[in-house]
Amino acid sequence: MNYRESISEVKPYLPGKSEEEIKRQYGLEKVVKIASNENPYGATPKVKEYLSNLDINIYPDNYVTSLREKLATFLNIKENMLLFGNGSVEIIQMLSRILLDEKDNIITQIPSFSSYFSEAMIQGASVKTIKYNSNFSFDLDNMLNLIDKETKMIYITNPNNPLGTCINYIDMKNFISKVPDNILIVVDEAYMEFVRDENVKSCIPLVNDNKNLCVLRTFSKAYGLAALRIGYIVANNEIIENLEKVRVPFNVSTIAQNSAIIALEE
Questions:
Q1: In the β-sheet with 213-218, what is the strand arrangement from edge to edge?
Q2: Are 246 and 94 in contact (CB under 8 A)?
């Protein structure tokens, strides 16, 4: 087979071993797994009650209508600014498909989420990285200096996983204002619900005024729905319309949609 050359450099995603695997491997009776940042409390009782009574013979709502309406109200945004994915990983894949070609590059930080790297590389694009400062603070100026004419996307994880580093709202606004309009800024806020620093805020309110900004969020972490795979992106309508062109139909299950609604209401 003549596989794409870019595939040769991509390594498959390697998830952490399950508790049962670790128990068998080391002969343990009890394991506390923290490697995958899974919510140890699980989903809420109402979600669990819903999951015990399911109709699974009908295709899911392709537009995710009910959750879209409730989430738009919850976030105080327009409904057409939302797109849902089979986890935020699928949305990263979609962003790469609509933006990246060979000779393009993305910019991100080390350490950060491996899917930023793999999805760019699959498209034949390269990855430019910055390291954190010695005190784990984020060097936004260095990131700006890496921008060149081939840069298509910038990924910022705020808060960062695994460091927990946060970028305050003022610094983020200033950074966004300095990035050229033709470069997409992707702020991954998978852990934003855990932030307690009042100076660190979501970038969702900035999306309306910055057409090259989008924000990723997920129900996997704070909401405890990791197994159901549901994430979403907040972006302007032009980006959403192009993402819809590459989105797999019925990509978010009915179970995930309804469980997310229940979790959001609680």
A1: 82-85, 231-234, 213-218, 184-188, 151-157, 105-110, 126-131
A2: yes
Q: 34-46 b/e with 16+ CB inside 10 Å = b?
A: eeeeeeeeebbee
Answer whether 169's CB lies under 8 Å from 201's CB: yes
Second-level CATH architecture of 37-265? 3-Layer(aba) Sandwich (3.40)
The answer to whether the pTM exceeds 0.85 is yes
Angle in degrees, 0-180, between the axes of helices 237-246 and 87-99, rounded to the nearest 10: 100
Mind giving me the DSSP string for 115-156?
HHHHHHHHTT-EEEEEEPPTTS---HHHHHHT--TTEEEEEE
pLDDT tens-digit map of 151-207: 999 999 999 988 888 999 999 999 999 999 999 999 999 999 999 999 999 999 999
CA distance 160 to 221: 14
Helix (H, G, I), strand (E, B) or coil at 10: coil
Q: Over the stretch 114-153, which tens digit does the pLDDT of each residue have? A: 999 999 999 999 999 999 988 888 899 999 999 999 999 9
The whole-angstrom separation of Cα 172 and Cα 200 is 9
Domain borders along the chain are 37-265
Q: How large a percentage of the chain has pLDDT more than 70?
A: 99
Exposure b/e, 135-166, CB count within 10 A at least 16 = b: eeebebeebeeebeeebbbbbbbbbbeeeebb
